[in-house]
Amino acid sequence: MRKATLLLGLLPALGLLAAPLPAQDGAQDLLGPQLTPEDQWRDFDGVAMIINDDIITLRELDKMLKDARGMVETTTDAESAELVQQVAEVAVARRLQTQAGRNIGIPSDDVERTIDRFLAANRRDRSAQETASWMAERGAGDLGQLRNKTRDELYRQFWESTALGEPAGAMRASRDRFVRPGQLREAYRINVDSLAQPPTVIFQFLALSTAAWGDAQTARESLEDLRAEILAGADMGALVDEYGASLRETRGISPRIPITRVDDPHLKDFATEAKEGALSEVFEILGPDGEPQGFQIARIVNRTAGQPAPEFESPAMQVDIATKLQSSWDKSRLTTSSDNLWRTAFIRTPPALKLKMPWERRAGR
Q1: Is residue 158 located within the same domain as residue 237?
Q2: Do residue 217 and residue 131 come from a single domain?
Q3: In the chain, fewer beta carbons within 10 Å around the N or the C end?
Q4: Which residue from 341, 333, 46, 344 is spatially nearest to 162, judged by alpha carbons?
Q5: pTM of the entire structure?
Q6: H helices within the chain, ranges in order?
Q7: What is the pLDDT of residues 77-89, one digit of tens each?
Q8: Residues spanned by the domain of 143
Q9: How many CA atoms lie less than 13 Å away from 223 in the CB half-sphere?
Q10: Are residues 269 and 227 both part of a single domain?
Q11: How far apart are CA 44 and CA 59, in angstroms?
């Protein structure tokens, strides 16, 4: 795995420096031995990004990047650069949400008491070793870091609650979240086809490629002969073992698939009309570029009947629709609120780091 360029090298620091006070006349005894210039000034961190009135340090961003590298493999410089960019965008989004939650106006004493209760509840029944493991899972090296992380998470929860119109702290709900009967019925009408369960099939394929048989005519005629053998009682799996090299491992058996998801129109028509055990005619295999690559036959090993969509009057159906509507609305509200945070924020990054706005990334730009 090629490691992404370390942020400490990629992002120029706006030096946060630790330095001793300069020695004054008569104060040498208090300050001790005179330090060399190399010992007097040491970088202990740097500013990676400025977000409104806050900063994200190089160490913070580098820690996030190291965590991301443990979950995402990068093999090229382009993939590594993209990972750095995505991690930086996540860091900015989290900081903006934390700031928005802090600006809601919930008293800091209430926030600290909530943190105290949370930490006490999670440490009460844990040993020291279990507590240390729990802190490590949350990315905290000590109780101070754990408290800061918990505080930031709590503020982000406040932001999310207000964006959704739910209560936050002592604040009341600000949005009617009830799904009206008319909204339920319209959602059912639009999605009724997707609520039905289509019939499914398991295929067994035998395919011959044109390249392996020299030309298209020879491949087709050979497969016609094999089809005749199968209809006469030959074991199709044995023929797959002998002739279908690419399908040998599975003996040509496919996973179960809904007929609605079968892409090839000839195969889809066959699966829709044929009964279990039926064998298709020989049909052409087209590659991704639409060019013929060979020929195949298919047998329906098993099929299940589809189920129509539940009736709208079903209470379970209405609860399911309402839950999905609320989830869709919540996602839209959070997206809108997050986009507004980005639009109104002052964000400064090094020239080497080009952030994409959330709507740009959603659009694939």
Answers
A1: no
A2: no
A3: C
A4: 333
A5: 0.64
A6: 7-10, 28-31, 37-40, 58-69, 77-102, 108-123, 128-137, 143-164, 181-195, 210-213, 216-231, 236-243, 265-273, 315-343, 358-362
A7: 888 888 989 999 9
A8: 105-170
A9: 28
A10: yes
A11: 9
